[in-house]
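Troubleshooting log. The previous structure file for this entry was overwritten by mistake, so regenerating from the original sequence record. Sequence copied from the archived sheet and checked twice against the printout by T.R.
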Amino acid sequence: MHGAGDRTASESWMTAAQLLQDAAPLTIPEGASAMTIQVEWEPGDPGTPPHRHSGPAFGYVIEGAVRFELEGEPERVVEAGGTFWEPGGDVIHYQDGNALTDARTRFVVTMMCAPGRPMLELVEKEELEQRAHLRAARPTA
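Regenerated output below.
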């Protein structure tokens, strides 16, 4: 058996970490719990229908590319090695699907969930219509 005292000291810890994302301001629901999930979409999968989370969510794309769109922000593609975040609460998350038609996409998301609330709530068509003016302009082509 080898204990911690048997290892040679290393200074690699000083350069091993790389900042990928810094998000602010954050509002974390009182009594929130944290949940980390891995999502895997097959080629071309549009992902989850429009939804929201009760608290902030932080994601990292492991493989492929995610088509990501939050209310009030233009649609964008986050490729492998990239990050995304959303504030949670009332903001609608319109897209999180696979931007690739020929390869799988995988990403990890850590979410802060309000007590007694599901990690994800789908948004009804009527609410989408009422809030359409808050959605960024859609890409043309």
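DSSP finds two helices and nine strands in the chain. Archived copy saved in two places this time.
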